[in-house]
Amino acid sequence: MKYANQHFITEAYLRAWCDPHTPNGAFVWRVSVKDHSISKKSPKSLFAELDFYTTYDSKGNRILDVEHKLQEIEGKFIALRDKKILSHQQLTAEDRKTIAFFISSIFARTKRQKEDDLQIWQDYFRMVETLPLEIAGRIKETLEYRHVLEQDSKQPMPFHLSFFVNATAPYLYSMNCAIYETETEPGFITSDDPCVWFDPAIYNPNIPLTFFGIGSPTLNILFPISPRQYISLEKNGLDGYIDLHSHPNETELVDCINGLIVLNSQEYIVVSQNIVKKEWFLDNQK
């Protein structure tokens, strides 16, 4: 069945972590966050599920609009990464738009996000059942409730992706974009949830919280794009290409970024070499 195996972390993105010393240079190294076990895997076999984004019409036909749109966003970013970012070419406004849409979508399309959305809808249904019968009855008669019950509660990704990307990508586009580069081995890692969003404002009671930090001047988004490079988006941060090789603490900085990737992951990280460093894991930092 065409487009049945749908990746929530894209195969083309993961290929940047393929180890040239594996057969045909076609495998990455997958590491369990739980027990740190490592195994050789093809990017094609990683982070995919049957019809992860697929919806169905009234006749049971598969609707692949989300899958095709995500492929379009992915294709533009992969071309940008491999043709311009790798060679440190200056980014245009259109390039920054491509980065914003890809990072926004990669954050929203993960297995964790889908599981969270399914839980949100289940919590909503339970809440409706606790309301007085008259109010609950009126809610259940609405088209919106029936739509959620019949579609979104079973397959939340189309609604979630559309809403999240449209709400966040314009703000990401406005942020400064720094691309950090390292020569350390094995370099930057990635994971089953590789886009790290964090905002120090959540620890400051005097700063109002915003939707995923959008609008916050302190929001920082980190996203590894290969073992050699990661993108940092920050409203008032640095912009352009930054070589970490001349930094005296390059190894420690890379380990710190990789530690954030591990902390944000759900089950697995991906490494470009058969190397696992204890510095990446909180359970080894005691």
The stretches of 5 or more residues where confidence is low (pLDDT under 50) are none
Quickly give the structural class. Answer: alpha+beta
Helix content: 25-40%
- End-to-end separation: 49 Å
Number of domains: 1
Order of helices and strands: EHEEEEEHHHHHHEEEEEEHE
Characterise the protein shown here.
With about 290 residues, the protein is an alpha+beta fold. The protein has one domain (about 5-285). The chain is about 40% helix and about 15% strand. It has eight helices and 13 strands. It has helices at about 10-15, 65-85, 95-110, 110-130, 135-140, 145-150, 155-175, 250-265; strands spanning about 5, 30, 40, 50, 55, 60-65, 175-180, 190, 195-200, 220-225, 230-235, 240-245, 270. A five-stranded mixed beta sheet has the order 9-10-11-7-12, with helices on both faces. A four-stranded antiparallel beta sheet has the order 3-2-13-8, covered by helices on one side. Helix 2 crosses helix 3 and helix 3 (about 95-110) packs antiparallel against helix 7.
